[in-house]
Amino acid sequence: MSLNLPYFLNPVDPAEFVGREDILDALIASLKNERSNSVYDIELLGPIGLGKTSTLLKIRSMATDYLTVYISSIKCDENKFMDHLLQNIEREARSRDGMCISFMDLSASLRLGNTSGDSAFIDALSRLPDKKVLILLDDAHNFSVEALIALKSAVNQLRLLGDGHVRLILASTHPLTERLVKSGMSQSAAFLFSLELKNLSFQEAAILLTRLYPKWTKKSLDIAYSRTDGHPALTQMYSQAYHKLASSDQMLELFDVPSPKAPDSHSDWTALGEYVLDISKKVGFVQVSFEIISKCHQLVRNSALRWYESSWLQKPSSAELKVVLVIAKLGGSAKFKDIEKGYGKNPAPQLQRASEKGLIEHRSRGRYALPHELLAEPLLDRYLKKKAAKN
Q1: pLDDT at residue 5 above 80?
Q2: Strand, helix or coil at 332?
Q3: Which of 128, 210, 312, 347 has the greatest number of C-beta atoms within 10 Å?
Q4: Per CATH, is 20-196 categorized as 3.40.50.300?
């Protein structure tokens, strides 16, 4: 098929954001709570493609009482991270309220190593007339643990001092509290309240599927949902694929009719004839829509594989890729003992590294999985064909 889909998915515009009412309600309720003894920071958890970025951007649009700073993952040490954060806070403060404020002296101290990251952060916030600050860190699992500890420590100190209302929402593929504790923070200081993103419901997915192109049938929506399970990234890909195919299908325009209304009386022959014609056109529309959704699968397969590979934090070694392909052969999700049998020896080291690189997810009770089972088939096609070609 000559048509291709882009594999890079932009976050959903906050104005078009659908669903996640439970998550949004919990986040907004937390931001409205200003009692110091019950304030907590939040980690928003979910595998790649579950909509963490879109949710953060939606919260940013809703948290109008806060000076909000959004930062996507950057790999750097504590002081460089804090310098970057202070520059963003300064920029937001100037654009939001026209404040004449500068953290240049703090940036210089950080770059020279004359001050710590948490001290610079506390000093910076003391200069803001409004201390209500919301910091959103996207892909927080990619930040250095030293940077996360410095930020969390500074926020905890400010709360103890009763100086300002600073909140953190960290989006991550892996829980962060345990990581902070292992690096030396106490459980109470490291604590992040966890909110976990799930797949979309059918109703939520239907809104996302029809966002680009509204001419779907219930049957086509059912097919797309059954293949994606409401996985947001894959749902977006089906929306793009259907839009691309339907936009170039001239037959669809011929059959695009509203649901026909039956005539009031069989004696009204003109109305009856129009009713029969509309029924025929409706049947044709259903058939064309079914043919289009049937063609979407190959497009989505190819796009999903490129999206998946682009999300890897590092390329896999041959041993790590082998264990991933074993999981793919087992349908995209498997227990440790079944992976061990397919791999031929203890796969624990490879599974751990593959999980750290974002190739697979370590789920509960010793189960490992691809981000979605739909990826299993194109993965096997791609890498087994490469292996066969080499031989």
Answers
A1: no
A2: coil
A3: 347
A4: yes
